[in-house]
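Dear support,

I submitted the protein below through the web form. The confirmation email said the job was done, but the results page showed an empty box. After a refresh the structure appeared. I'm attaching both so you can tell me whether what I see now is the final result or a partial one.
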Amino acid sequence: MNFKRSGRPTSIHMKKLLAAFSMAALCVSAFAAGADELFPNNKFRAYQTYEALGPAATIGGRAIYKGGRNWQIADLADFVNNMNVMIGRVILVSPHNGEYFLEMAITSSMSSGSEDGYFSANVCNPAIPHALRVNKVSGHNDNCLIVSHQTRSIYNQPVPGLQVIVRNSKSNWRLYEVRLFINLALVGFPNSTPEEWNSGGVEKDPARRQFVDNMEKWARALQSGVDSAIDYSKPAQAFGAVPDIETVFKPLTAPVGVAAVRYGKTPNTSIDYVYCPALERMIDSAQETCR
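What the results page shows now:
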């Protein structure tokens, strides 16, 4: 059998080849962009409890803050509000040496409503006891950061911690909310109480005051990252300027006398975030009533 060398492709053939390569690259890029979407077609994908969160994971196409930590998926859920807006929620956990350390719930709208509108909530109410509060916008649009003390029941053990809430809502039913819970025992504050972590209690203790001061710069950067993530363009690097979590919350071994909260092989059923239509946000049903 004889083979004939075809020679250099003509300019027309070259254009066709380049077009084909460009199309293939676009397809690969599109696949890569959507490969880690937690809610393809606005419905949560199949997952295994405590499976690793992918490095490029998104929620409704929006970036997820990972803060230099490895995260595991504890739960995925999707909802529809009364304006037919699709809402996605993911609960993530990040243990330290097998101990309960970080938990993060992210809620995001994933579609537009049947008519223009907005979400509203009074998350930054100054009457709520808090260690830190930054309310940039409230009303039709929300851009709120609040840090307050909370005690969770994790595997039937009380775990005092700080909850960082960043909530952002804008026109056309856009919503992005981050709720990050930090086990205070693992960052040097065991057996903490709510009174120690309100604004008055923080001022009474230099160590807590320094801790909150250090946390504020990070928290404000996270608030700016959420504001970027909710943009129509959905930038992949929305949280690129946010420092890693351990720049503020450096995990330690649980102090002597403090029971370490170990992870089990089954999901923690005490955590039950649900969408509350009356409040137009996610709530922890063990801590708050939907009304």
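Response: this is the final, complete result; the empty box was a page-load delay. The first strand starts at residue 51 and ends at 52.
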